[in-house]
Amino acid sequence: MTDRRLFLKSLSALGAGVCLAASSRAAFAVPYKKSLSFYHTHTGESLSRVFWADGQYLPDALIDINRLLRDHRTNQIATIDPALLSLLERISSQLGSGDTFHVISGYRSPETNQMLAERSDGVARHSLHMDGKAIDIRIPGRDLTHLRDAALNLRSGGVGFYPGSQFVHVDIGRVRKW
After folding, report:
1. Which of 12, 18, 101, 167 places its Cα 20 to 30 Å from the Cα of 67?
2. Statement: residue 98 has pLDDT above 90
3. 119-129 burial by CB neighbour count: b if 16+ within 10 A, else e?
């Protein structure tokens, strides 16, 4: 009987210790937030926003980002896949910076994509830009190869390297590079 009581007291103390440790961690937990900064090279618009906090994407921030990354030729706004934003945040973290991404192309309407595809062999007929799953970017003052390598290291989608045009294409499609 004494062994049983001793065992239950020990178990009770262990449980209290675990609960106390968990509540202590919760009291000192730092809320995790994801943020991005953009400058659109064609419109001159800038935006810095926290787009994810407390375990969820922030709808108002996503609306603002969708507007900034719109097709600048047609002014059409589309939904940018939040996974693309998370990928950009991870690239920024890989680079150890909170640098501003200069956007060359975000969303592309089907009309814009068709026009660009007719002018260049480097534009896919059904580009992931049309689905809000791709972006062309650079970071001024940063070596373009570092940006490319950070994206490649994450193995989270396609990475295209365009040093002549000074940008890196990043998408959340299948893992590939060109």
Report:
1. 167
2. no
3. eeeebbeebbb
